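Narrative summary of target 7.
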Amino acid sequence: MTMVAILSGAGISTDSGIPDYRGPNGLWRRDPEAERLVTYGPYMEDPEIRRRSWRMRLDGPVLRAEPNVAHRAIAAYERSSGHALRVITQNVDGLHQAAGVPERKVLELHGSARSVVCTACHARSSMAEALDRVRAGEDDPACRVCGGILKSATVMFGQRLDPVLLGQAMSIAKAAEVFVAVGSSLQVQPAASLAGIAAEHGARLIIVNAEPTPYDPVADEVVREPIGTALPALLDRLR
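Modeled conformation, tokenized:
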């Protein structure tokens, strides 16, 4: 049984209406100030940053987004290929699971935007519930357990990845016989290094991304076509 790993980045979800960050039309290029809203230090120190962050989420596309053809192609591959599949995602939108990939086969390196966590007592609740509180007039909702600061259950800029999750991702990269990096700029470390780790351990490395990445020179195949058509065709070939 072939071990196939897929590392997905923001580019896989743009067809679901979720903008990427670093592409030519990415969020940070259009609104550089928006990066402060998801940076841990400013978020924790400045109540106004938190209020703006909650308003951004209120209007954000993540909870309304639906899986697109690329997400569904991965789910169909998982069901029908007969190969062992693991999805490592840099995304926080939950669309792989929504498309039908089993939870246990998806590693969310950067957490989930569908939940919130207290920065003091670590209590978790749903993002939908927190946003209902914002709509009801709480512009910076506090933890209902201890009164601490709430944030999305994502890894913000300035925070480290969970070392246990990162270790699991590295183990998957080392074990993979085929490693597909799709929709990722492969610039954010340490997640980007997974492509290099896979290649170093003998995996066939395939990169599907509109823009060049630092790992293109070590890839066995680089695909520049739109993800919505390129990824389903690639997965059909891998069957």
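Strands lie at 3-8, 84-89, 106-108, 111-118, 124-126, 150-154, 178-182, 204-208, 221-223.
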